[in-house]
Amino acid sequence: xxxxxxxxxxxxxxxxxxxxxxxxxxxxxxxxxxxxxxxxxxxxxxxxxxxxxxxxxxxxxxxxxxxxxxxxxxxxxxxxxxxxxxxxxxxxxxxxxxxxxxxxxxxxxxx
Length: 111
Ligand SMILES: [Zn+2]
Hints:
With 111 residues, the protein is mostly helical.
């Protein structure tokens, strides 16, 4: 299926033809440019990677909740120490993923 990109706002539309107007910014049909096969591949790959990173984010948030539970349970110092390390890892990795996703969003040529 061809992909069309709004030259005004970057919205990517999937369809045989460009839409009559941009669903996001309302720009007319003429503002849409068909993406090349190579650009389409980049958009699709970028979408897949973003989706996978989002899944990891969900897992890390769960890790955070479980580690918090271990910490609050407060069985013994080694357990609490380990729980703190687990939380630290989850928080740091969540921030790294968010930063990475942000750079993907800004790379507007990928749509
Ligand atoms: Zn637009």
